[in-house]
Every structure is written in structure tokens, then in C-alpha cells.
Amino acid sequence: MDLELDGKIVLITGGSKGIGLACAHAFAREGARIAIVSRNRENLSAASASLGKAGFTVHTHAADLRDAIAAQDAVSTVEQHLGPIAVLVNSAGAAKRYAPAALTPDAWRDAMDAKYFTYINAMDAVLKGMVDRCEGAIVNIIGAGGRVASPVHLPGGAANAALMLVSAGLANAWGSKGIRVNAINPGATLTDRVQGRLEAEAARTGESIEARRRAMEDGIPLGRLARPEEIADAALYLASARASYVTGALLTMDGGVHPLGS
Ligand SMILES: NC(=O)c1ccc[n+]([C@@H]2O[C@H](COP(=O)([O-])OP(=O)(O)OC[C@H]3O[C@@H](n4cnc5c(N)ncnc54)[C@H](OP(=O)(O)O)[C@@H]3O)[C@@H](O)[C@H]2O)c1
Hints:
About 50% of the residues lie in helices and about 15% in strands. The longest helix has 29 residues, at about 105-135. It has a single domain (about 10-190, about 225-255), classed as Rossmann fold, CATH 3.40.50. It is globular. It has about 260 residues and is α/β, with parallel strands linked by helices. The site of NADP nicotinamide-adenine-dinucleotide phosphate has 29 residues, from helix 1, strand 2, helix 4 and helix 6.
């Protein structure tokens, strides 16, 4: 299947790690020209080396996307180096988890900065150009936690819920300009961050990492966590010409935990 991504310029926020890095590899394999943005230069260098080892070159840009001006600057710099961005994949940032008793107004605000505004700032910066060119696709990696009111993930869940509405709303607003906006809601996906969480839980409970992982996998009909590459494959499809009539969609990828996306 030709995804028609060859030569397209693709910006992946959070592309230095986890799902974003898997997306960078996947789009590069399709012949796209990739730019990745994250805060830490060492993470960017490691990602660049990993892509280089696979035979791909990548443009890297260090920016904290919580800052709207830094996001605008990142997009301008990428467009100066590579050309107009055809695809934006948002995968930067994640909100901290809090026990309900530890919640403060600052914790809620931090979650919005860490997860909601990182995505909003990147979309705002690319959308103007996409609207002028009447062409573009955006894929937001959001999170199933936006549909489940987990008491230990309320600020992050709220940011995810807001992003779902924004994705659908922007799809509606800009569809007539040829711009598609779609979202993916991954369930637990085995990135380094989730591996770190498993290690911390194992240390806290005295159980093995394997036992903690099995506990997480319990109740997932597919019987395992997602792999970052599986989320990347869905992002590829949604960004591609093969999804030319798909916009405002939310793809739940939780191994069947919430049938019908409920
Ligand atoms: N893994 C899961 O189980 C899961 C499930 C549902 C949803 N998600 C969502 O999917 C996205 C990716 O998750 P992941 O597990 O792949 O995370 P990850 O491995 O922690 O990677 C996050 C990436 O975002 C970058 N980043 C974080 N904050 C940033 C900021 N303020 N500005 C710019 N870059 C920033 C990080 O690099 P730097 O540290 O260098 O900035 C890194 O490249 C997140 O939004 C997460 O909420 C993940």
C-alpha cells in the first residue's frame, strides 16, 4: 500500500523518545523527511543516532513546547531547513500523576502546560501555514486516560479530554481548507517511561518488574501492553493519503479494554 508519504515533511513533537521516536522511524521508512522536537539535546542526539543507525537523517530542534514562542520558533526553523510541514504528529509531554489529596491548583495547571499546551502550541504554529497551503494532516497522540476518570490521573486525564475535543473541533473548523486532524488514544504502551513506572512500582511493592507488568496486562483482552511501533503504524495511516476521508476521528488502541471506545 502506497501511503504517499515519500518526500513529505513531517514534524514529530516528542520525537526523541517512546511513541514519538517510533513514529520518526515509521515515517522515515516511508521516505518522509523528518524533524523531531524535544527539550533535552542529549535525548535528541540519541534519537538522531538511532535513526542514523537505521540509515535515516533527521533534523532535530530543542524546544520546550510549553512555551508558545518556542513552539513557533521550532516550526519556523524546521520550515527554513526542510520546507513546509505537511504532517504534524504530537507526542510531546505527559502529565504527572497525583493522589487526590496531593492535588493543588498548581498541579492542575502543570498538567495543562505539560500535556495540553504542548500540543496546542505546536498545532497553532503549523496551522497557519497549512491553512494558507490548503493542505495538512495532524495526528495527536492523546491517551485513553481522557475517557476514564481515574482518581490518580485527574489533571492529566482532564488535559487528554480537552485535547480530544480540540482535535475534533479543529478537524471541523479546517476541513474545508483540506486539513485533517485525527487522534489516537493509546492504552498503556511499553515506552521507557512506562518501564520506569513498572520499575518504581516493583521497588515500592517488593514484587518483580515482570509481576507488575502482568498486573498491568491483567484485564487487557489482547493480554499485553501496546508496543510504540503499533501506535506509530496507526499514526502513519491517519497521516497518509489512504486516510484522505478520515478526519475528526479518535482511534482507541487499548487492546480492547474499552469496547466501542466507551
Ligand atoms: N506510553 C503510554 O503508555 C501512553 C499511553 C497513553 C498516552 N500516551 C501519551 O503519548 C505521548 C508520548 O508518550 P511516551 O510514553 O512516548 O512518552 P515519553 O517516552 O516520555 O516521551 C515523551 C517525549 O516528549 C518530549 N517532551 C516532554 N515534554 C516536552 C516539552 N515540554 N516540550 C518538548 N518536548 C517534550 C520528551 O523529550 P524531552 O524530555 O527531551 O523533552 C520525549 O521525547 C504522551 O503525550 C503520553 O501522554 C502514552
